[in-house]
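I have been asked to look over a protein record a colleague put together. What it holds is a sequence and that sequence's fold in token form. Please read both lines and tell me whether the tokens look consistent with the sequence. I do not need a full report, just your reasoning and any doubts. This is what I was given:
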Amino acid sequence: MLRWFLGGREAQGAVEKNTVLFIGEEQPKNSYTELQVLKGHFDIVRFLVQIDDFRFASAGDDGLVLVWNAQTGERLRELRGHAQQITAMTTYSRTTSDSAHTALITASSDRTLSLWDPETGNRVQTVSDLQSSVKCLLVLDRLDVWISGGNELCVWDRGFHLLCKTDHDSDAGITAMVELPKNCIAAAVDKEIVIYRLRASSSKSDTSVAEIRRLTDHQDSIRTLINVNDQAFASGSHVGELIVWDSLDWSIQSYERILWDEPLPEGPTQIRLNLQKQSEMSVQHLASDGERIVAAVGSGLYLYDVSTRTVAAYRKSAHDSNILHTMLLPDGQLISCSEDGSPASAGFFGMWTFGRSNKQASQQVKKVPELPGLRTLELTGDLIGHSGAVQMFVNFMDLGLVTCSTDQLIIVWKNGERESRFRSLSLFHKLEENQGL
């Protein structure tokens, strides 16, 4: 299931003008009324990466990396070389003597790393026989290096030469990384966030990476780690903790815990929703637009305002199962997808709003007296297409949305009115060329 939210905040009984949904205006309708199904994978498709304004790459458990044109749906290249499932994928800008273009870096369970040229489909570089599978990749364009995270953190140059690495960390390994100021990196390792400092040098032999701090404030495994803005990054844990950190001194800016069962003793701000299973309190995904953070917590969504350090909105049951991916779009929309697998709900995504609440929503807000301004998220639309869990999505703005799923399919969702208009214009041009015949 993939769903959308849209809207803003309400203040003193009126909707502020920085919102998308205003009093007296009609609620935005779902414009994604046309879809194009892309086939090519033979197993679960877990990753989508945008290459440029028109192209994207998909990868998953079949070890294949496919390059597509989002506008036409054409499969442009098949990148074959990995023997097992893809575990991470990212883009990498490369500059040659002629021009600059975007390459792809992939990691696999076969313990290899590969650099691909999506223009030709060729594997340019590869590293094999790694000590462990790589779970995450991070490109540091400013330092002209990239980093792989597994049971150890490795720093590589553009030629795929290993510059330095850390010692074997733990059996859990590094599951997520973000870049911080002053050549620092935050890496999630089980319950801890490890801060590393990279000392780069023009001489490859002098480049080094060293651990300088461990943040041990989470009570359980960290599931997601993101940059919020230049001053903050955030992490979410298996027990519903959301922590916003200062990017410079790594202190806690704010701490929230979303409770599904028992309230915590006095301490951090708490929001208690209805009773749910212990497994549904995990923060599965975080996304931010620099001002707000959306946390996917079990099957619910939780919107947090960074500047005011308050809850802006929530929806305790946004999906029928765990939410896997979220995004805050520039126009104020919120989109989410989940692993919904029941026959009645598989393969949806929808649009939501966090503007004015209805009577029922207002009654729900009253159950949280310590957060009187809390809003609920209102569904504005569902899209049906996939028959399995939607793993993630990429937004191509005017060209539409791209989703991938356990059903092995990729779907490009398009604005039906826009596509119809383009087809009409194309037909008129052909009639003019043939003098109306």
In short: The longest helix spans residues 416-433. The domain at 2-433 is CATH 2.130.10.10 (Methylamine Dehydrogenase; Chain H). The mean pLDDT is 80.
